[in-house]
Design a protein that fits this description.
44 residues, 2 helices
């Protein structure tokens, strides 16, 4: 991988990965939603 050219892009990508991992590990209150629904709610 060539890497990121802009720090903002790198930090946004890492934040998204961390959020996805938190949802998968059920560390985030999701009100009985599926992990996909919780992720799409955050992305919107």
């Amino acid at each position: 991988m060539m890497g990121f050219k802009v720090l903002h892009s790198a930090s946004a990508t890492i934040a998204g990965i961390e959020e996805a991992q938190m949802i998968r590990k059920k560390q985030l209150a999701n009100n009985n939603r599926s992990p996909f629904q919780a992720f799409t709610d955050l992305a919107a």
